[in-house]
Specification:
Layout (H helix, E strand, L loop, with lengths): L1 H38 L5 H6 L7 E8 L3 E8 L10 E7 L13 H9 L3 E5 L4 H4 L3 H17 L6 E11 L1 H8 L21 E5 L8 H4 L11 H6 L13 E6 L7 H13 L4 E6 L13 H17 L7
């Protein structure tokens, strides 16, 4: 009996050490994750997932900022492309709460649109974890890119009147701001260049900040910029009667960017005489469209995007 009790006690001691070891490892992993998020040293999972199958054709620098911070864009050109072409183009800005993210996020979409005959661009822009910046600087970079692409369209084989801007989450805000938030720009911008997006392609976009989900909990959301600065580049606050046609693809269960605020955005665009279609994806959460999340939803959003662009004459119908 005594021997059995001692055996049990020994087993308990061993298990306690194992449990303690597991707890310490989990704490260390958690601390490493927090450090990685705050410093921007997160692994680029999108690159790991997509680089081998969806690599860009080229890279171009579009902006040099103080401190020799250089911003580039991936370029995907279609088969048979030449600089003398006037191809439709699509620009897709990555998401990441203006704090982190990777141009690789939209690599499968860029490859698809290039296969369909468009020139696709995936620009980098400043984010908080790498640059100590916020939503205003990111918007400035998006507007700078739009001006750069419009100004250099002829040397890129692009029709400057057939450029589609799009993006996901924070990137959706950037794309939606390009047509209307022009007072935010970088010092080197040529303000005589007036980019006019032919259409907008928005994936669970943050396009309406003046709603309870953002307004009431702003101090708890972990962002390093003020609610006032977000409102200054909020697409909802700057809508005009000539806003470009837009397609919004959004999950009904999105807890980060609730769909009700997006519904209000699309309604206001339409009430102002514009044409904005919202396609709700039932039961889907934030980021549902990413290929590494769901191939099925990726393909569904690609199909909807193709139909939308074909309807505007920016893609041939299949």
């Amino acid at each position: 009996m005594i021997r059995a009790i001692r055996g049990i006690q020994k087993t308990v001691r061993v298990l306690s050490k194992v449990v303690l070891g597991v707890v310490l490892v989990l704490v260390a992993i958690g601390a490493l994750g927090v450090w990685a998020f705050r410093t921007g040293n997160l692994p680029d999972f999108y690159r790991w997932a997509y680089a081998s199958d969806f690599s860009p054709t080229d890279h171009r620098e579009y902006l040099t900022l103080p401190g020799d911070r250089r911003l580039e864009t991936f370029v995907y050109t279609p088969s048979g492309w030449s600089v003398s072409d006037r191809r439709p183009a699509v620009v897709l800005f990555f998401g990441g709460a203006w704090r982190l993210g990777s141009p690789w996020q939209f690599a499968p979409y860029a490859a698809h649109f290039a296969e369909r005959g468009m020139v696709a661009f995936l620009p980098d822009y400043r984010v908080g974890s790498r640059d100590g910046t916020g939503i205003v600087e990111a918007t400035q970079d998006a507007v700078s890119f739009a001006r750069w692409l419009t100004e250099n369209a002829a040397s890129l084989g692009v029709d400057p009147e057939a450029i589609v801007f799009g993006g996901g989450s924070a990137g959706g805000q950037l794309a939606a701001a390009v047509p209307v938030v022009r007072e935010r720009h970088n010092a080197t911008d040529d303000l005589t260049v007036d980019p006019q997006p032919a259409a907008l392609l928005l994936f669970n976009p943050a396009v309406n900040f003046d709603v309870p989900a953002f307004r009431d909990g702003w101090s708890d959301n972990g962002l390093d910029f003020s609610f006032a600065s977000a409102l200054s580049v909020d697409p909802m606050q700057h809508l005009t009667e000539d806003y470009p046609p837009c397609l919004v693809l959004h999950g009904t269960q999105d807890s980060l960017v609730p769909i009700d605020g997006v519904r209000a955005f699309t309604q206001r665009v339409n009430d102002s005489g514009g044409n904005c279609s919202l396609v709700p994806f039932e039961g889907r959460q934030h980021g549902f469209f990413n290929k590494i999340v769901s191939t099925e939803d990726f393909e569904a959003t690609v199909q909807r995007s193709d139909e939308f662009l074909a309807g505007l004459g920016l893609l041939p119908s299949r």
